[in-house]
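Reproducibility note. Readers wishing to regenerate the assembly model reported in the main text can use the exact inputs given here. Chain order matters: entities are listed in the order in which they were concatenated for prediction.
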Amino acid sequence: MAESMRSVGTLTETEDGTTDSVATGSPIDAYVVALGVTLRRRGDRDDILAETADHLWLTAERLVSTGVAPLDAERAAVERFGDPEVLARVWATVPSRHRPLLAAPAAVSGLVGAAALAASTAVYQLRAMTGGWDQSEYLTWSSVAGVALLLACAPLLSLLADADRRGLGVRFAVGAAAVALAATWFVGGLGWAWPVPGLLVSGVAVLAVRRWRDQRVGLGLVAAAWPLGTLAYVVGDALHLGPVDYTYLQPILPPVVGFWIGATLMVAGVVAVARTLLAVRSTDRATPTPA
Amino acid sequence: MKGNVLKGHLEMLVLSVLARQPRHGYAIIEDLRVWSDDAFELPEGTLYPVLHRLEKSGLISGSWDDVDGRRRKSYALTDGGHAALDEQRRSWHEFSVAVESVIGGVPWPSR
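Running the prediction on these inputs yields the following structure tokens for the assembly.
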């Protein structure tokens, strides 16, 4: 019996008559890859491929248990499952499970916000490292950074809007409140204490990633961004790294480096999420939602 | 029986299988095969779009488990799925009686 098939690999018989898998030349692996290519624009592709792989390996295992040679069993499993191109056409009639609210506007907002956040980071770094800024400049910067953060969070809120499956739910409400508080924090002139709104935003990403496994790269970057930035800030401050601002008697470098780390990772994550949202939109637009 | 004959009826068949107990995709195919005495021939991969469509419609719910290092999704009928299945069974019964009447040359509903 082939009771311990792995998730990838080719069935091969071992000396004791059981089966094992190796990672090369597997018809099932090749099939899953081919199907993945045809489904590349679907937001739920990873889940579909996981189900497909499980089905194919189960089929192969059962065939092997009836005496079919392992490689033949894999080929038969693939044959029975159907042509990937044909299946892709069938899948095209099923809307992607992931159908975030206002995906395209949210993605565009996220990209604009990411660009503004990157610009804000550059300004923050420049002014902090070249002798500081006056109050008016600082307040302007803090307000712009707050708006940038708000726009950049739009893709996260779009994902959270669908997280409860029944429209706007608790997770969306919590996420929207956190983002609003984070943006207000900046606009209110408290940008110097950026770890607070930053960690709120990272928390929103954590909320979203629990539901959106296929967005884990982008959301993971946002989730890690501000904790890592804050850590760099705290450690650098504790070690008194770099030059000191003698007005406030604080090291200049740690908050700048921390903000740079947080903003850079967040920008990367938001861009990744925004790109997938745009792709999901193009898939769903072509397929009506069933009644 | 070819897959295109099943088109339009596969959702009802899947709901019927899941009405007995929760199943993953492979087990649903196996049940369909056994209960139909190998009458249904369809590419097995076409089952999954049907499952996802039913899930999106709220007639079935899916849940993931890790089994032997693989992710496996099982499906169960929801309350809405039970109601939909009852309705589809009624419709199917009416349809099949009518077809039988025509084919058998016996006026419906006198049978």
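We highlight two features of this model. The beta strands of chain A are 10-13, 19-22, 244-245, 250-251. Residues 1-23, 281-291 of chain A have pLDDT under 50 and may be disordered.
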